[in-house]
Amino acid sequence: ATAQIGVTGLAVMGSNLARNFARHGHTVAVHNRTYAKTTALVEEHGREGNFVPAESAEDFVAALEKPRRLIIMVKAGDPTDAVIDEFAPLLDEGDMIIDGGNAHFADTRRREKALREKGIHFVGTGISGGEEGALNGPAIMPGGSEESYKALGPLLESIAAKAEDGAPCCVHVGPDAAGHFVKMVHNGIEYADMQLIAEAYDLLRNVAGFTPARIAETFRGWNAGRLDSYLIEITAEVLAHTDAATGRPFVDVVADEAEQKGTGRWTVQTALDLGTPVSGIAEAVFARSVSGHRDLRAAARELPGPRREFLSADEAEAFAARVEEALYASKVVSYAQGWNMIAAASAEYGWDIDLGAMAAIWRGGCIIRAAFLDRIRSAFAADPALPTLLADKGFAEEVGRAQDAWRSVVTTAVAHGVPTPGFSAALAYYDALRAERLPAALTQGQRDFFGAHTYRRVDREGSFHTRWSGERDEERTA
Ligand code: NBP
């Protein structure tokens, strides 16, 4: 046995991850259901480091130093179970199976429990950054036991992206499925970010009347400021791109139906179960879904909207600056919601996740990497029990300064008939959190009226019910 690590599943992610390990001086055993992929990898990239190609599961396991570290990089779902079932009987106590696929955290909890009973460490690991990240440095979010991280951490940290301060973008997130959970929320936040950026583009295009090329310039300008991020950077690239076949802006020749693979939807489904509002992510998932409903959109195409001219050139400039503020404030809200969701799951499952560390490891390697994340890291460093990012002094000041512009942008969007579900939901959340009284009091009254669901009072302890069909006298129920 000569290999420090093994990778099974050599499609794009697994191959790139294996090459990343090899380039960092680790000997990597490589295995794939279809052996031709294994030989192709070694033929094409064998010179990058030490690979041990294995055709059978037995040879693969025999190639690994003990305790064995075996990474699974296959299609998430049934294929992952199939691969676990194939390898688990060949492993010994103390060995580690690392699932680097995009597994649902509930599957990871189930697999971890089953393998723990056999003495095998199952490490559900979120890996972010797509194929390029896997090759050149991803953000890595391992769950599983503390003990497994001792044996695995240094290897993973060596291939992870490095943040600007040189820190590896990899940390032991917490036990069992903590890693896959935060990876899911990361993807949800990514959906929300993309939606907010899309809304900013739509406003600049259809209210300000900017061309895609001009919007690309605007985004480049924003990227030099507090919105500095990978997503803003690539947005400018996409908007500046011209379609070779037609000479038109690329964005105008792409069908306007956004697809999804499911991690955004999982985030929202899970948030509903946990009772944590992630309206920014939910609106982003729904916006993609609306875009894909051709039939609904065709049926509604003739509905009336407002008649509005583009803003004048001067107004458009000032409007663009306000859109930047609305985008920033909405982004703070969607990150605040995402972090609350992680905190809620951490409490629910006893994961004890370090919230600041999540921001720290997402500064590099992943799709939401941004200067902004360093601010979140500092906010949690200043107060590890911060109830919401909106309560951090720095964020509170910035969002407070942005709120006039934010309201004005949402108002303008409504007046012009441009849908901004992300901006609007974020603003509604902000206003709901800061409200002194919410109409939830009325909701409780209604619930008590039709279902005797009881209510609490502002002036006395206990639960109460009003006998609505009788004298309307009040009884204390608890
Ligand atoms: P795919 O998700 O396309 O999976 C292809 C791999 O799964 C091949 O190696 C294939 O083997 C293997 N496989 C399948 Br399919 N069924 C199998 C089975 N029953 N038994 C054994 N092997 C089986 O690969 P990918 O795009 O590289 O992604 C790998 C994982 O990484 C996924 O979970 C994905 O969600 C996750 N991920 C992807 C990205 C990304 O940007 N693509 C980013 C982050 C995470 P074969 O060659 O024999 O068909």
UniProtKB/TrEMBL annotation:
InterPro entries: 6-PGluconate_DH-like_C_sf, 6PGD_dom2, 6PGDH_C, 6PGDH_Gnd/GntZ, 6PGDH_NADP-bd, 6PGdom_BS, NAD(P)-bd_dom_sf, Pgluconate_DH
Gene Ontology molecular-function annotations: NADP binding; phosphogluconate dehydrogenase (decarboxylating) activity
Enzyme class: oxidoreductase
Active site: K183, E190
PROSITE patterns: 6PGD
EC annotation from Swiss-Prot or TrEMBL: 1.1.1.44
Binding site for substrate: N102, S128, G129, G130, H186, N187, Y191, K261, R288, R447, H453
Family matches, as SUPFAM superfamilies: 6-phosphogluconate dehydrogenase C-terminal domain-like, NAD(P)-binding Rossmann-fold domains
Keywords: Gluconate utilization, NADP, Oxidoreductase, Pentose shunt
PANTHER family documented for this protein: 6-PHOSPHOGLUCONATE DEHYDROGENASE (PTHR11811)
Similarity remark: Belongs to the 6-phosphogluconate dehydrogenase family.
Complex formation: Homodimer.
Protein name: 6-phosphogluconate dehydrogenase, decarboxylating
